[in-house]
């Protein structure tokens, strides 16, 4: 019996045979082709047509964004210019696989040189190429395998498009060798309710068909588990389910200290699920999601309607003004120049300072949406604020628009370190743990091979969060957390112990966090926070916090 | 050769879904259709990869060309797609 340990990102227990998806299709060798070039061309085009058909049928079963992406990929597979390049390649003596590979390479280069948006399409193009090359070389087609028997999916990392196509009835759990707790994979897995472990070293070396037990809460994968282990894991899962069922009402510790539990949303479409999970409000309305990937911009009236719908559903709503730039470019908020490192460039409030009319327009729309509602219902916050001067500017812009609750996100380490200066200028803080981790550990969120460095349990991040919370409490203001760290029930207790005043997360994570808080007193949370901060490594911090929280075991955590 | 000048009204430029819809419509046309910048080289409008590589941004002007029988009607239809993008833009 072997065990692998990764990071559990979506709780639940899954048992089944392993299917390992090899994600690398090799470059076809440039050997000369001897044979009938016409037949070889037919073979190449037939492979592309098969890929096009497959992608098209997947597009029809997928929904939303995934559908558009897959439909565009199907068009790429059937591209007539691409077919022309392939014909030329084969008649010049290339094999079908090599000609396909080189022809895609030509377009790959064209697209990589275009805008950021286009460069992001390069991975879609590579995926089409790999599918076609795999067919021509008789290799396994990358992506989720077809299987009638429920299985545990093992991959290096999982693209959101692949994940969207997984059938939760077939995939009992999935494990990625890379990927991190804040990646799309983790977020989508929780939303779909599939148990999942990410950054699990050794997972790719498992053999197809080996039976494993996946515990998405502890991050433990057990090869060839004994019955006793399976029943223990299931018992813990039941305990969690019971805890979730019995914890209702507003978020509070065992001794009644309130910690409002809020939902992160992208728009009115997420309201129902947030309400169903018992969210007491919205702690992060990512307003840029209303604009991303839209063919047409929202009019002011449409914006007002979207805000109003959310404001009417909850007693408190924190709207983040447009957080564009870096991985979320918006066409009407361009940075001044091409940036070698967009994560460190003009994004968030920095971009809005360049385009002040956009900020003014959004604040005006927000003020109109909140007309006639209680004054404390709408709170507005700015992303990527570095210092007190920027905070002051944003608060002034909000006041000018008639908005009385202005806050900032703490994502830049400088803002956390000097939170005391900034607390004077704003009405509240919200800790954006994902970006704060990216900046304090100097690790790009998109670099999956370095996600181990972005663990929110690292004491350096705990210290920064403590600085911000202490500064807010000292100034009599609120300090929430709206990063994925808040979704970890153990971390949620530590955050409450650090002085954080509200927790916002994706809706499915709320019930377990509510149960963990309700099972511990504020003093126990404070002791766990102090113990975690006293540790030297992330795993020691996790262990120390767990040791200080006695009810975790009965909750199955 | 028939020709039309159109303006890219879609917020995302001629990318994403607008590009896919344009290419699909062009592919259904019985004649050859090309597209390009006002002064630049023309590319095959039936090729998604060529159209994406144009990287046409919102507000840019593009030239649509077609040759052969029915070219005028084909261009009317394709140009109307651009107006549709702009109407939903309002």
TrEMBL record, chain A:
Catalysed reactions listed for this entry: L-histidyl-[protein] + phosphoenolpyruvate = N(pros)-phospho-L-histidyl-[protein] + pyruvate
Keywords annotated in UniProt: Cytoplasm, Kinase, Magnesium, Metal-binding, Phosphotransferase system, Sugar transport, Transferase, Transport
Location of the Phosphotransferase system enzyme I N-terminal domain: 6-121
InterPro entries (UniProt xref): PEP-util_enz_mobile_dom, PEP-utilizing_PTS_enzyme, PEP_util_C, PEP_util_CS, Phosphohistidine_dom_sf, PTS_EI, PTS_EI-like, PTS_EIN
Cofactor(s) named in the record: Mg(2+)
Localization, UniProt: Cytoplasm
EC number: 2.7.3.9
Gene3D superfamilies: Phosphoenolpyruvate-binding domains, Phosphohistidine domain, PtsI, HPr-binding domain
All copies of domain PEP-utilising enzyme C-terminal, residue ranges: 248-519
Residues annotated as domain PEP-utilising enzyme mobile: 149-219
PANTHER family: PHOSPHOENOLPYRUVATE-PROTEIN PHOSPHOTRANSFERASE
Physiological role: General (non sugar-specific) component of the phosphoenolpyruvate-dependent sugar phosphotransferase system (sugar PTS). This major carbohydrate active-transport system catalyzes the phosphorylation of incoming sugar substrates concomitantly with their translocation across the cell membrane. Enzyme I transfers the phosphoryl group from phosphoenolpyruvate (PEP) to the phosphoryl carrier protein (HPr).
NCBIfam families the record matches: PTS_I_fam
Family assignment from sequence similarity: Belongs to the PEP-utilizing enzyme family.
Name under which the protein is recorded: Phosphoenolpyruvate-protein phosphotransferase
Native organism: Actinocorallia libanotica
TrEMBL record, chain B:
Localization of this protein: Cytoplasm
InterPro entries: HPr (IPR050399), HPr-like (IPR000032), HPr-like_sf (IPR035895), PTS_HPr_His_P_site (IPR001020), PTS_HPr_Ser_P_site (IPR002114)
PROSITE patterns associated with the record: PTS_HPR_DOM, PTS_HPR_HIS, PTS_HPR_SER
Classification via Gene3D superfamilies: HPr-like
Residues covered by the HPr domain: 1-88
Keywords, in A-Z order: Cytoplasm, Phosphotransferase system
The keyword Cytoplasm is assigned to this record: yes
Annotated function: General (non sugar-specific) component of the phosphoenolpyruvate-dependent sugar phosphotransferase system (sugar PTS). This major carbohydrate active-transport system catalyzes the phosphorylation of incoming sugar substrates concomitantly with their translocation across the cell membrane. The phosphoryl group from phosphoenolpyruvate (PEP) is transferred to the phosphoryl carrier protein HPr by enzyme I. Phospho-HPr then transfers it to the PTS EIIA domain.
Protein name, entry field: Phosphocarrier protein HPr
Protein's organism: Actinocorallia libanotica
Lineage: Bacteria, Bacillati, Actinomycetota, Actinomycetes, Streptosporangiales
């Amino acid at each position: 019996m072997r065990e692998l340990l990764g990071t559990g990102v979506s709780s639940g227990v899954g048992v089944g045979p392993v299917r390992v998806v090899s994600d690398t299709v090799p470059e076809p060798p440039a050997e000369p082709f001897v044979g009938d070039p016409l037949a070889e061309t037919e073979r190449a085009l037939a492979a592309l047509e098969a890929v096009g058909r497959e992608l098209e049928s997947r597009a029809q079963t997928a929904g939303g964004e995934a559908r558009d992406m897959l439909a565009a990929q199907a068009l790429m597979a059937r591209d007539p210019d691409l077919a022309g390049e392939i014909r030329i390649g084969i008649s010049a003596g290339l094999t079908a696989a090599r000609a396909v590979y080189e022809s895609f390479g030509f377009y790959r280069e064209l697209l990589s040189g275009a805008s950021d948006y286009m460069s992001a399409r390069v991975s879609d193009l590579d995926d089409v190429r790999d599918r076609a090359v795999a067919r021509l070389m008789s290799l396994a087609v990358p992506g989720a395998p077809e299987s009638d028997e429920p299985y545990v999916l093992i991959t290096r990392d999982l693209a959101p498009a692949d994940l969207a196509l997984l059938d939760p009835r077939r995939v009992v759990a999935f494990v990625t060798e890379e990927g991190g707790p804040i990646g799309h994979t983790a977020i989508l897995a929780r939303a779909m309710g599939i148990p999942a472990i990410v950054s699990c070293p050794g997972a790719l070396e498992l053999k197809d068909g080996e039976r494993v037990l996946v515990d998405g809460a502890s991050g433990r994968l057990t090869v060839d588990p004994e019955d006793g282990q399976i029943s223990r894991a299931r018992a813990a899962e039941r305990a969690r389910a019971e805890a979730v069922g019995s914890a209702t009402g507003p978020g509070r510790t065992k001794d009644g200290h309130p910690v409002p539990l809020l939902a992160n949303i992208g728009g009115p479409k997420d309201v129902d699920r947030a309400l169903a999970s018992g969210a007491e409000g919205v702690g992060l309305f990512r307003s840029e999601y209303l604009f991303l990937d839209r063919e047409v911009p929202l009019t002011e009236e449409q914006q007002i309607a979207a805000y109003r719908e959310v404001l009417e559903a909850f007693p408190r709503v924190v709207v983040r003004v447009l957080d564009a730039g870096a991985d979320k470019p918006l066409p009407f908020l361009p940075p001044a120049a091409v940036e070698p490192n967009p994560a460190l460039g003009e994004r968030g409030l920095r971009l809005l300072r360049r385009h002040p009319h956009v900020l003014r327009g959004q604040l005006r729309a927000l003020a109109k949406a909140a007309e006639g509602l209680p004054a404390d219902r709408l709170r507005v916050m700015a992303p990527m604020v570095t210092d007190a001067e920027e905070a002051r500017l944003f608060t002034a812009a909000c006041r000018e628009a008639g908005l009385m609750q202005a806050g900032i996100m703490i994502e830049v380490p400088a803002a956390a370190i000097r939170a005391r200066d900034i607390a004077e200028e704003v009405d509240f803080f919200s800790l954006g743990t994902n970006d704060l981790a990216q900046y304090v550990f100097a690790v790009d969120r998109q670099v999956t091979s370095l996600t181990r460095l972005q663990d929110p349990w690292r004491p350096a991040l705990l210290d920064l969060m403590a600085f911000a919370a202490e500064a807010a409490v000292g100034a009599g203001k609120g300090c929430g957390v709206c990063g994925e760290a808040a979704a970890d029930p153990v971390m949620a207790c530590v955050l409450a112990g650090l002085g954080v005043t509200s927790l916002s997360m994706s809706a499915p994570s709320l019930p377990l966090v509510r149960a963990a808080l309700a099972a511990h007193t504020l003093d126990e949370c404070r002791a766990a926070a102090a113990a975690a901060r006293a540790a030297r490594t992330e795993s020691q911090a996790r262990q120390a916090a767990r040791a200080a929280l006695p009810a975790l075991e009965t909750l199955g955590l | 050769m028939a020709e039309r000048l159109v303006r890219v009204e879609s917020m995302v430029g001629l990318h994403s879904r607008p590009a896919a819809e344009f290419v699909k419509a062009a592919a259904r046309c019985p004649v050859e259709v090309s597209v390009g910048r006002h002064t630049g080289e023309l590319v095959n409008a039936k090729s998604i990869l060529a159209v994406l590589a144009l990287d046409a941004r919102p507000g840019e002007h593009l030239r649509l060309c077609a040759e052969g029988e029915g070219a005028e009607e084909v261009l009317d239809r394709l140009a109307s797609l651009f107006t549709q993008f702009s109407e939903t833009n309002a």
